Hints:
Layout: H1 3-24, E1 27-30, H2 32-42, E2 56-60, H3 87-94, E3 98-103, E4 114-115, E5 119-120, H4 136-143, E6 149-153, H5 158-166, E7 169-172, E8 193-197, H6 200-210, E9 226-230, H7 240-255, E10 259-263, H8 268-293, H9 300-309, H10 314-335, E11 340-344, E12 357-360, E13 363-366, H11 371-374, H12 376-381, E14 385-390, E15 398-403, H13 409-437
Parallel strand pairs: 2-3, 2-6, 9-10, 9-11
Antiparallel strand pairs: 1-3, 4-5, 6-8, 7-8, 7-14, 11-15, 12-13, 14-15
Amino acid sequence: xxxxxxxxxxxxxxxxxxxxxxxxxxxxxxxxxxxxxxxxxxxxxxxxxxxxxxxxxxxxxxxxxxxxxxxxxxxxxxxxxxxxxxxxxxxxxxxxxxxxxxxxxxxxxxxxxxxxxxxxxxxxxxxxxxxxxxxxxxxxxxxxxxxxxxxxxxxxxxxxxxxxxxxxxxxxxxxxxxxxxxxxxxxxxxxxxxxxxxxxxxxxxxxxxxxxxxxxxxxxxxxxxxxxxxxxxxxxxxxxxxxxxxxxxxxxxxxxxxxxxxxxxxxxxxxxxxxxxxxxxxxxxxxxxxxxxxxxxxxxxxxxxxxxxxxxxxxxxxxxxxxxxxxxxxxxxxxxxxxxxxxxxxxxxxxxxxxxxxxxxxxxxxxxxxxxxxxxxxxxxxxxxxxxxxxxxxxxxxxxxxxxxxxxxxxxxxxxxxxxxxxxxxxxxxxxxxxxxxx
Length: 439
């Protein structure tokens, strides 16, 4: 990309933000002047040849961007300005990417969808629907083409839930892979910084840039790979469209020459409860006293979350961390036998804006709260996971999730890209056949 092309890309992103952000409320801070200044500086640095030269991104409001406010979607921190970039932002800038601003989020990554200070993020797929997770603005910005990709955080599934709702890819890395320096915590033993993007290829490119690794030069096909179906991981009912999307993903794998096997795990419901206990206890330890001293600067939903979190005792926390350690060992043995496993990302499609619930049969269930069963296990045991959109002929997109062994991130992203292509091709072929036969 030339310098001129980079300038045009930044200008186009800023124009899209100006056109849509007032309605979507995806971003709460935009610094157009500094974004343009960074483009002007690119040709004077080695980043001119960087792998992300001219790509644009936004960062969730937990992540420091130099000289921009980091408020965690709250008033608890006042107008705190970051002195320097978070490590992940600095790496992306060094690779030539241009940061545009900060993304809206659920307050302190614990409040509800209606942020009391910055408003509720609207889903670009449908103004009647929400985004279903704390990285709300990051996913909406990507889905609305306000940026090339976005940084979010994923402590209990919130990069993946919002990606599913908005029809994009959402990645949670292996715990410890991407530095958390310069990132406000939610629950440190489960926190990760991840990437939301229109494609798995873009996520892979971003990860390799952050790891200072060369871009992948070959693709990794599904042929000859082994994928698992974990039959007892999720016991809650799902929307029929979601169940069909999971089966469609497995059929796409088989059609490409992949192998599918089945597993069961021990006591998945206990793992879900352990994840909730760990997240809530650590949140209360980090923020409890500060919120008490400045109660007027957080919303009612955060106060409710903190009150519930304080019900978790130190002994319960110790027991939960011990259980998580047992599961990590069990899952490591199981995942050593496969390249990945497929699960639904959420029980239904994007949640209604007003209620944050999703349809499952004739009932409506909370979309975000389902994360304990559908997504949080990846955080509790520290493994990587990628939400992959499953396109539909009409209506909101569905989503499936590809997960794998800890530190298998590069392979997992390559396989997510291959699976995404296979799903899209099979879907297009199915649509073509239906049209031809008149069904």
